[in-house]
Amino acid sequence: HHILKFVLSCAGGNGMLTPRTMTSIAPSKGLSNEPGQNSCFLNSALQVLWHLDIFRRSFRQLTTHKCMEDSCIFCALKSIFAQFQYSSEKVLPSDALRSALAKTFQDEQRFQLGIMDDAAECFENILMRIHFHIAEETKEDICTARHCIPHQKFAMTLFEQCVCSSCGASSDPLPFIQMVHYISTTSLCNQAVKMLETREKATPGMFGELLRNASMGDLRSCPSQCGQQLRMARVLLNSPEIITIGLVWDSEQSDLAEDVIHTLGTCLRLGDLFYRVTEEKARQSELYLVGMVCYYGKHYSTFFFQTKIRRWMYFDDAHVKEVYGAVLVVGHTDNINQLTVYLIYYL
Ligand SMILES: *[C@@H]1O[C@H](CO)[C@@H](O)[C@H](O)[C@H]1NC(C)=O
Ligand SMILES: [Zn+2]
Ligand SMILES: [Zn+2]
Ligand SMILES: [Zn+2]
């Protein structure tokens, strides 16, 4: 078998690489996952939240919340964050959060103890629960609470519409909010192949546009039936500071994994990612890749760029490693039909 390599080309000249003075920080910690617990999906989501500077700092400032006692995700998250910061242990248990999550989602039968679940959905749901704990009075789809980190920093406020270039007719705009921007890997690879047919070489700078082209969806008929075939266009109405992209493995084909990895870019312009971006601030935004959650061999692990020490770290439950050099070994490609990658971009 050969080993799938993922090259992270952190281009110079961006803000991420300017040296900073070292500040004393608690070294990264692992999260335990005993046999039968199947907590790797939660551990990955948790490492992402802890390592995202914007989240960690804003969450620290939140104090009051609607408490749900022993099923309180807010309290469980506060507690594990305190341990991340002050504990002298190298490996922490994520059991309290696991249990609060299981109790909270008992009715839906999601995230139950001992059962494997999806890291991106866990991440999204933790964010939505934080909204519930601190801004419950405002509805999820129109939350404007300034202290609501999930909606202020993570949420993408979008509308979807198709407009006919031939007759000018348009479909009713469909507004929605998403915490994770999901894209099919099959579609991403098809777009990458098309792109390579018309260009000499792919550059990482094209990644945003490639994602946009890949998320356009299927052709549909013009709303006024003029005969034109159109695609849905997505318009971004806000300026999120963190963008999470979920690459969804939707085919059984195994030979795309390497292609997907090769299309990944480390810099993302919001203006490229959507058909139209209404806010000037968002149009100017360039975000840098800071984290990656990989699903491989029915197991989640996480890569994260630690801004304070300016190094990539690898988190596999209890194990934490520093990643040296620019080549990350993601996994063996024996039977790689399930490499799901979540990318987290940061302003
Ligand atoms: C995206 O699609 C447009 C229209 O089909 C095409 O002109 C452009 O080259 C594509 N971009 C990339 C990066 O593939
Ligand atoms: Zn509480
Ligand atoms: Zn909110
Ligand atoms: Zn038309």
TrEMBL record:
Residues 29-347 form the USP domain. Transmembrane segments: none annotated. GO terms for molecular function: cysteine-type deubiquitinase activity. Keywords: Hydrolase, Ubl conjugation pathway. One of its GO terms (biological process) is protein deubiquitination. InterPro entries: Papain-like_cys_pep_sf, Peptidase_C19_UCH, Ubiquitin_hydrolase_53/54, USP. Pfam families: UCH. The keyword Hydrolase applies. It comes from the Eukaryota. Belongs to the peptidase C19 family. PANTHER family: INACTIVE UBIQUITIN CARBOXYL-TERMINAL HYDROLASE 54, UBIQUITIN SPECIFIC PROTEINASE. This is USP domain-containing protein. It comes from Gasterosteus aculeatus aculeatus (three-spined stickleback).
